[in-house]
Amino acid sequence: MNAEIIGVGSELLLGQIANTNAQYLSKQLAEIGINVYYHTVVGDNANRLKDAIHTAQKRANLIIFTGGLGPTKDDLTKEAISQLLGKPLVTDEEALQSIELYFKKVKRVMTPNNKKQALVMEGSTILRNDYGMAPGMAIKVEEIEYMLFPGPPKELYPMYENYAKEYLLNKLEVKERIESRVLRFFGIGESQLETEIEDLLENQTNPTIAPLAGDGEVTLRLTAKHADSNIAQQMIDEVEQVIRQRVGPYFYGYNQTSLQEELMSALISKGKTIASAESLTGGLFSERLTSLSGAGAVLKGSIVCYHNEIKQHTLGVSSDTLHNYGAVSTQCAKEMAEQIRVKCSSDVGISFTGVAGPKVQEGKEVGTVFVGISVAGRETTVHHLQLTGSRQAIRQRTVRYGCHYLLKALNEEN
Amino acid sequence: MNAEIIGVGSELLLGQIANTNAQYLSKQLAEIGINVYYHTVVGDNANRLKDAIHTAQKRANLIIFTGGLGPTKDDLTKEAISQLLGKPLVTDEEALQSIELYFKKVKRVMTPNNKKQALVMEGSTILRNDYGMAPGMAIKVEEIEYMLFPGPPKELYPMYENYAKEYLLNKLEVKERIESRVLRFFGIGESQLETEIEDLLENQTNPTIAPLAGDGEVTLRLTAKHADSNIAQQMIDEVEQVIRQRVGPYFYGYNQTSLQEELMSALISKGKTIASAESLTGGLFSERLTSLSGAGAVLKGSIVCYHNEIKQHTLGVSSDTLHNYGAVSTQCAKEMAEQIRVKCSSDVGISFTGVAGPKVQEGKEVGTVFVGISVAGRETTVHHLQLTGSRQAIRQRTVRYGCHYLLKALNEEN
């Protein structure tokens, strides 16, 4: 089955919202082995919608619509499809009753246009809407499956999960299982990673290997198909092993994890607490860590020492260091990491100082960054980075590199 | 000009990311009066991409591509378009030099596949990429404008704003000017706001009034059309005045501003410095403030006192307060705000303490939050909030409310 997802709604074409419904449905369809080859977005215009359907009919045998099932004049998805397929609209009594019940419940007057929401195409399978008024529907006409979903995600998601998924699984003749796993890498560029595994990428069939770069990271999605899902997992294991033999040092985790989650797990498993001293990052490191529930077990606290006055008086960096080397220096990063560890009585201290831009500072270029790591009983290390990008990109990369270096240091420790 | 936006990338069809580039560009194009009639998404497949282009050529005279300009074999957007339009690819020397420079700067080896990123279509206008390697391009062939952008939003957004927008404005034979202005509100719900201005919403024609809710804020976009842009602005002024007479107390700023930007401007204009003491927010307030360039003029520093130990020993909250009232209390918020102001010798101290969840804390419900504001020479105020939502939503709303309360306090001061 090859699918096309057609999003209907002028709010999408005006950029008021992103087409997250297409993202959601694509992910769901991939999981049950349905290929999605196109997404289309069209406004609340019957002629352009019909054109889009004609185009889709030539290239897909599953056409999924989202949006345009509501009560207003703008909502014309099912009217257009009904005309095109020659399937008249009839009132679905169950849907009508539940709409009337809803208005009684919220004690509002039911305006006549709401009745329109209970109209469905004759001969279609109704997909119940447990979180809204307009039902969805599914109908097969001349070897093409059409499925209509409401636009609001809080109605669409449960409708897919509770009703549409089963409908689709019954229609699929394929009994093949699809398993996938994402490998996450940090500290290696996309092109370098691909060069290291070029032969694997060129000869991939099953499992497939899909690289994706974003946010300073690179990921590889490994996807295997097999009637037995255990065997599909083994096939992925084997490819993963080969990849990690080549670029293992840059690998840091699986699937939806992040550097800060991995860092937090590592700190918890080693029973270590941490504190941060942050200049250019302004609190971003501790903010990222405390965004995870359970941060209380590892983060004691932080000092955001944006002014040198705070570096000196609150954190305790020596005035000599600030005077002789400046705040953007190896020496300052070292003292910041050591001082915060002592101040907060934590096992680990991490520091961030540098130039986020847009202006040079102390004669140091934008992107000059020092990350200090102080661990009780070990020599303090300072990493010097030269980063590029906007102010915000530099700050975010600084924190990612900090997590990366500290993770490495913790893993080396055993 | 009628536009179609074609997003290229299998990661979109697999649902790994949402097509936020189409959203961004649609919003930008609407602002300069270009209608977007279709969005299309197609995978990294040359034949299907060519089919999508053929379809677009029949219905648009501006075709915009996003993604597929990178160094890998997957990236085939410009190769496919170049073949289709009969415009050979040639190396752009400036782009090549900047790629080589980039690799030198970050001290990484430049793999040969990176050279591919410097290839551009002969005869095209280059759109410089200030935040990445692959340049964008624009070319007109047989009455159709083609524009190619890189996929990463960090590269695409500035490329559009700094280079592509002007290119498009030059191509437009604009007669009517479209002016728009966004009014931003905080502390009022979308339905309450709409109720207050219901009659205006119902009778809108020119200017139009478009409400949009998101991220705990509500905005109204006023858009007016007129041959004279000054008159269009006056038309907007008049509607704005009526709206602000009704819901003025919730209004905080225009267009792309944010509560933290308004707060920073207010602090700068009053010549005041600030410091924050953060418990549940974990540094989010100072992180948001330092994300803005120029933060050095107002933020002295912050203490993230996640553990009570840090509240007491580093910040100086009395042990009596922690013992008798707990960390999540009016009393603790008051002392935190006062202590941080004194510790950092700032004019203003702000504090955040509360329960972000997922668990109750000190017997206090998730969402219980106290925000303290201490200003030199005035009595410290503490605001008690009861918020709902996820851990991250509670933290973000806490910071927004903090900015909102402090802005009000600063504005009352004169």
Automatic annotation (TrEMBL), chains A, B:
Upper taxonomic lineage: Bacteria, Bacillati, Bacillota, Bacilli, Bacillales
Entry keyword Hydrolase: yes
Any Pfam family the entry gives: CinA
Keyword Signal tagged: no
InterPro entries: CinA, CinA-like_C, CinA_C, CinA_KH, Competence-induced_CinA, MoaB/Mog-like_dom_sf, MoaB/Mog_dom
Similarity-based family: Belongs to the CinA family.
UniProtKB keywords: Hydrolase
MoaB/Mog domain residues: 4-171
SUPFAM superfamilies (UniProt xref): CinA-like, Molybdenum cofactor biosynthesis proteins
Gene source species: Priestia iocasae
Protein name from the UniProt record: Putative competence-damage inducible protein
UniProt-recorded Gene Ontology molecular function terms: nicotinamide-nucleotide amidase activity
SMART domains for this protein: MoCF_biosynth (SM00852)
